[in-house]
Amino acid sequence: MNPFINLTIPAKAEYVDIVRLALFGIANKAGFSFEDIEDLKVAVTEACTNVVLHAYSNQQPGMIDIRFELEDRGICIHIKDEGSSFEYEHAVNKVASLHDKALSELTPGGLGIFMMHALMDKVEVRTDKGTEVILTKLIGRKEEMA
């Protein structure tokens, strides 16, 4: 079984920094480069921010469960909430249509998903009970591809 670390925080913006700090320590210990750690921090921040802004909007503030799983070749990060889900396929299709547009044509929303896909090696989203975003980053992936 691969080692993992669980972290649960309130779904409030002021707690997202705790996730970023934990991620830095875990990714550094796992051997990720500074650039890859920065990519991980951006993607995880986007996923957590989506929870803060959207998951519990009409309810009492909820919690965000984060699970860092160290794997042989990288890290898998699960960001889960018990709040309102969204239509992931619709969001991905909206993001796919952004490629040919000028910056002035962009509208708010969906860019976080675009960034997660651009920065991670794999992005999975499950929306059956709440939302779970699973981000996977492999160590040294860019160097291997060159």
Task: Describe how the helices and strands are arranged.
Layout: E1 4-10, H1 16-30, H2 34-55, E2 63-71, E3 74-81, H3 88-96, H4 111-119, E4 122-126, E5 131-138, H5 141-145
Antiparallel strand pairs: 1-2, 2-3, 3-5, 4-5
- Structural class computed from helices and strand pairing: alpha+beta
| Strand numbers in spatial order across the main sheet | 1-2-3-5-4
Write the CATH homologous superfamily.
Histidine kinase-like ATPase, C-terminal domain
Quaternary structure classification: single chain
Ends: how far apart?
31 Å
Q: Mean of the pLDDT scores? A: 83
CATH class, anyone? Alpha Beta
Describe what you observe in this structure:
One of its GO terms (molecular function) is protein serine/threonine kinase activity. Keywords: Kinase, Serine/threonine-protein kinase, Transferase. InterPro entries: Anti-sigma-factor_SerPK (IPR050267), HATPase_C_sf (IPR036890), HATPase_dom (IPR003594). This is Serine/threonine-protein kinase RsbW. The protein has 146 residues and is of the alpha+beta class. It has a single domain, classed as 2-Layer Sandwich (Heat Shock Protein 90), CATH 3.30.565.10. It has 5 helices and 5 strands, in the order E-H-H-E-E-H-H-E-E-H. A hairpin with a 4-residue loop joins strand 4 and strand 5. The N and C termini lie far apart (31 Å).
Any key phrases for this structure?
5 strands; Heat Shock Protein 90; five-stranded antiparallel β-sheet; alpha+beta; Serine/threonine-protein kinase RsbW; transferase; protein serine/threonine kinase activity; 146 residues; HATPase_dom; HATPase_C_sf
